[in-house]
Amino acid sequence: MTDYFLRRLLLLALTLLGGSAVLFFAMRTLPPRDAIDLQVPPQTPNAEETKQALRRQLGLDGPLYRQYLDWLKGFFTGDWGKSLHSRRPIVQELKNRIPVSFELSLIGFFFTWALSFPLGVLCALRQDRLPDYVLRSLAYAMDALPAILIGILLLTYLAINFGWAPPTTFAYFWDDPVRHLKIMILPTVVIAVTSAGNLVRFTRTFLLEVLRQDYIRTARAKGLSEQVVLVRHALRNVALPFITVLGAAIPGLLTSSVIIENLFNLPGMGRYTFQALINLDYPVFITTTMFYAVVILTSQLVTDLTYAWADPRVSYARGTP
Amino acid sequence: MARYEGALEAAGLEWEGLAPQRPRPFPQRALGGLAWFCSRKPLGAFGGVLVLLLLLMALLGPGLRVGPLEVPRLAPYHYNQYDIARAHLERFQSPSLEHPMGTDQRGRDVLSRLLYGARISVAIGLGAFIISTVLSTTLTLISAYYVRSVDLLLQRLIEMFNFIPDLLIIGAIFAIKGGTPLTLALTLGVLGGLNTGRVLRAEVIRIRGLPYVDASKAMGASDGRIIFRHILPNVMFWIIVSATNAVSVAIVAEANLAVLGFGLDPALPTWGNMLDESREYVRQAPHLAIFSGLMVAMTIFGFRLLGDALRDVLDPRLHGARQRP
Questions:
Q1: For the whole model, what pTM was predicted?
Q2: Averaged in consecutive runs of 10 residues, what is the pLDDT profile of chain B (325 residues)?
Q3: Which of A123, A264, A269, B57 is geometrically suited to a Cys-Cys bond with A101, CB 3.0 to 4.6 A?
Q4: Strands B69-71 and B64-66
Q5: Residues linked to residue B71 through DSSP beta bridges, in sequence order
Q6: Do residue A258 and residue B159 have CB atoms under 8 angstroms apart?
Q7: Looking at the domain assignment, is residue A147 inside a domain?
Q8: Residue A261 maps to a domain
């Protein structure tokens, strides 16, 4: 297990290293213009020299491989460079944004789980009867409705019919908890509604598969009550594939939180990333993308380890991948 | 045998025991298969109907011209047809007989715009699907069947791209190259191809280890024969299922990018652009958001239902389960 963990960690580090190099060199060589070209109009006197001075000031001069090494060192020591657009340190700008995105993803994750697991179990227990059909159709519909539409309609109809609208200016939890929760409730609900559909169907399939197994029949034959069979024998075995699916859902969750942040004007990391792209602020983009990459890869590793820990049959001895 | 024929004839029976059974003609077989699919998977068939409707909309909505044959457009108006002088009077109309889905902020017919948009979405989706299929199939068959070194290098490369969310990759490419339908189709195609390739590769490696592949190798079959006769048919369903996914992925990506400020040319009546624009006018004209959102939803709904049903029917591993009630 330790061996497996170490090997995975090494592989993760190598992947990150290679990926960051590809990302860095691509984003520094491919774009024809960056934010500095936008900031210095071509008709200003000494435009070229001004740009060069700016670049030197922001650490964008010198050979590319040196810049990459500097950036890499900075990334791990917490010095993430400066934004070309605002010319402020990226760490400072991200400091308050990362918690917002994480909160959105984690609460959305929890709501998704809390919504989809019970519904999926209900579907499986009432297989091919009315609740199953209704819930499954609903799951497909939730899957298909774009988050944009749900967000727009929720905002509008809450405002028109109930006169309720989330506060317009953002507040952090540590400043004004009540207002913060009022702002966060709708976005997390939208995340849960749009990503639960898939998981409902997965849970249903998994549970149906488990319920067909011999050990369930044995448990029933022993005379255990349906409830005990379900909770002790079936649901425990459903937890395993569910872990994998949840882990696989994390990149999707981050992506959807990017869109939700834009829809609801939340000052999160995803919105910052895309704002940086609009401003052609590539250093910011490289850094936030790498941050996403670290989060995604770590969560994948944690998923696999949880799986190994939860399933006694899985052994990650040498030789098995 | 001939001795009994007379007796059979006398009894009004026909001898069919040893007569070679002629295979039914193709149209009949196809119809039979379709009927079987519809009765076995009603939800999937319903999805198929929705998909067919979408394809018809995309094909005929903006009109069609193939050589001498000209089909008039289905859309009642051109997508950008409006009267500047009367725009302030004609905009934000609710659905009526004249405009079945109302009009937008410039007085343009929403239904017509959605019909034109359908063609753009379907074109991007199909383009992405073709690129992704060609890419994933060739990559997989080469890397999983032949050289281990190619495989190792390729997998590491794919992994490097895999941990960055697709949306960020597309966003970066749009920021650098500008967003056109072609760029979107290419990017989605390559990303989808790499993803499908990973799944296909695992499948191919699994199948390659099965006894029947060894058996056919022992009989002296060439690599080409093994690949095309034994391996490809077994992973075919993955390719078909990913085809049903491609169009919905394209539509969702386009809509998401539009919201993020990286939409396609705002002059194009894509569904994403329409959804994004509708956000501003949702108080005056909620029908803009509802109709374009529902169009997206119905399409994804149809493709999802069809794709799931096709996977259930075509996945060779589930064939035992087919007979189960």
A1: 0.81
A2: 59 58 73 81 87 88 77 77 75 78 80 88 90 86 68 75 84 86 90 83 81 88 84 81 83 88 84 87 83 90 87 68 41
A3: A269
A4: antiparallel
A5: B64
A6: no
A7: yes
A8: yes
> Does A53 map to a domain?
no
CB contact (8 A) between residue A149 and residue B167: no
Candidates A33, A148, A195, A266: best to mutate against B (most CBs of B within 10 A) is A148
Is A52 within the bounds of a domain?
no
How many residues in total does chain B contain? Answer: 325
* Alpha-carbon distance values, A263 to A102, B51, B55, B293 (Å): 17, 29, 30, 15
The alpha-carbon gap from B323 to the nearest alpha carbon of chain A, in Å, equals 15
Given a contact cutoff of 8 angstroms between Cβ atoms, the answer to whether A123 and A200 are in contact is yes
Q: List the alpha helices (DSSP H) in chain A.
A: 2-29, 35-39, 47-57, 64-77, 90-95, 97-125, 130-144, 147-162, 177-211, 214-221, 226-228, 235-263, 269-278, 282-310
- Rounded to the nearest 5 degrees, what angle is found at the Cα of B275, between the Cα atoms of B272 and B278? 150
Q: How many domains does chain A have?
A: 1
User: Residue A122 half-sphere exposure, CB side, CA atoms within 13 Å?
Assistant: 15
Q: Are B181 and B125 in contact (CB under 8 A)?
A: no
Domain range for A180 is 90-268
Would you call A235 helix, strand, or coil by DSSP? helix
Q: Which helix (H) or strand (E) holds B66?
A: strand B64-66
